[in-house]
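re the bet — no i am not wrong, look at it urself. input seq straight from the record:
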Amino acid sequence: MSIWYRLQVNKNQHGLYAMAYQMLGNELEAEDVVQDTFIKLWQRREQGGKYEKAWLYKVARNQCLDILRRRKHAVEYQIAKAVGSDVAQSASDHVLNEELSGEIGKAINQLEEPYKSLVVMREVNGLSYQVLADALDLSLSQTKVYLHRARKQLKENLEEMYA
């Protein structure tokens, strides 16, 4: 196995897994998506294909969308619950964080594609606008407009939940 390939796996596996888990809400399916994505990267390398970070996210996202389509029903997913291991954090703070993560996940789940993917890929994974544009086959200006609309819709969804 080449050093280049190992480097790509090490640099991207956590972000790809987080995105796949966000979209699918299932650890095993998310792991399968990441593994299949890296298999495709390996095959692309052998065929002399050009590698870009956006390409990896595009492949993983498309696999997630295929899985969601096969399920034939809406799948609820959750935002990764990154509760710090700070010993001083109180039990009530922990419960509040869990509740808030669940509510945000529900609000994101109400978004249509590509808004849902844009929010997860930008806000959770921190991908740049250009990587988002490349991954979703959008222009940079379309990406910014869609992300603005997605954030606006997310805000409205959250306001409705707490009204």
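see?? The chain has one domain: 3-80+90-161. told u. also The domain at 3-80+90-161 is CATH 1.10.10.10 (Arc Repressor Mutant, subunit A). so pay up
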